[in-house]
């Protein structure tokens, strides 16, 4: 498997490139719109053909590049089937793997951060989006979030993977790049160390996090697979700068 971990600094988002060495077909997981040109340059450098983009969920902190990558290179858009987005080409469902050449990606429905959140297992790696972060997890107080659902997603599904399964999260704000299931089971202060559902729910209820600054723009745009709002405030235009400047078609 060809693998690259990419980073978008404005939202501290990790994008993941995986590719088949035989067919040169590739997938981008959680691509960010203001990194389109960088991602396409890397695909050209590696002589890969982008076939599919996958989003772990409808993001609240950045605009996905899915639609604009489709316009640029004719890639297909994969999102949770339950979101019923008219712009999607592939509806992601647990138990229905995505196969490209020698690549097999197994979707795991991991609700809690959002109700339609998915993680993706590919070989020795699991791409956990915002469900499981390194020493943390995504918040559960918007987009139909549910702390009990997130607890079950992590403890019943993700922690059921082998301990040496590598964990690649959707974000990290401290420069960390990778963990493992075994490490998160032992060290994660929110969900590891045998923490109970009641303890986790109480912890999440007491976070008192600020309202996400980009959510009112990102969610509507991402429900269209990556459309930047026309009324974006000046201080947020960097989130969509490349999209407005890049050639389309």
TrEMBL record:
Keywords, sorted A to Z: Metal-binding
Domain of life assignment: Bacteria
UniProt keyword Metal-binding present: yes
Metallo-beta-lactamase domain span: 12-171
Gene Ontology MF term list: metal ion binding; sulfur dioxygenase activity
Keyword Metal-binding found: yes
InterPro entries: Metallo-B-lactamas, Mito_Persulfide_Diox, POD-like_MBL-fold, RibonucZ/Hydroxyglut_hydro
GO biological process: glutathione metabolic process; hydrogen sulfide metabolic process
Classification via PANTHER family: PERSULFIDE DIOXYGENASE ETHE1 (PTHR43084), PERSULFIDE DIOXYGENASE ETHE1, MITOCHONDRIAL (PTHR43084:SF1)
UniProt protein name: Beta-lactamase domain protein
UniProt organism field: Leptothrix cholodnii (strain ATCC 51168 / LMG 8142 / SP-6)
């Amino acid at each position: 498997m060809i693998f690259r971990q990419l980073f978008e600094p404005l939202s501290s988002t990790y994008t993941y490139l995986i590719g088949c060495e035989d067919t040169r077909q590739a997938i981008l997981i959680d691509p960010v719109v203001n990194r389109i040109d960088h991602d396409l340059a890397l695909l050209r450098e590696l002589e890969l053909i982008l076939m599919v983009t996958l989003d772990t969920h409808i993001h609240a902190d950045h605009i996905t590049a899915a639609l604009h990558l489709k316009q640029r290179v004719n890639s297909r858009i994969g999102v949770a089937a339950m979101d019923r987005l008219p712009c999607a080409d592939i509806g992601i469902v647990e138990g229905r793997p995505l196969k490209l050449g020698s690549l097999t990606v197994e979707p795991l429905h991991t609700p809690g951060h959002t109700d339609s959140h998915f993680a993706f297992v590919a070989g020795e790696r699991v791409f956990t989006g915002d469900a499981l972060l390194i020493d943390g997890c995504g918040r559960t107080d918007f987009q139909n979030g549910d702390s009990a659902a997130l607890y079950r997603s992590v403890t019943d599904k993700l922690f059921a993977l082998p301990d040496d399964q590598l964990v690649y999260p959707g974000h990290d704000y401290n420069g960390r790049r990778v963990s493992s299931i075994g490490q998160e089971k032992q060290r994660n202060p929110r969900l590891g160390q045998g923490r109970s559902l009641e303890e986790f729910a109480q912890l999440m209820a007491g976070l008192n996090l600020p309202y996400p600054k980009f959510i009112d723009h990102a969610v509507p745009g991402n429900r269209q697979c990556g459309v930047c709002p026309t009324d974006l405030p000046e201080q947020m235009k960097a989130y969509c700068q490349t999209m407005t400047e890049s050639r389309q078609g």
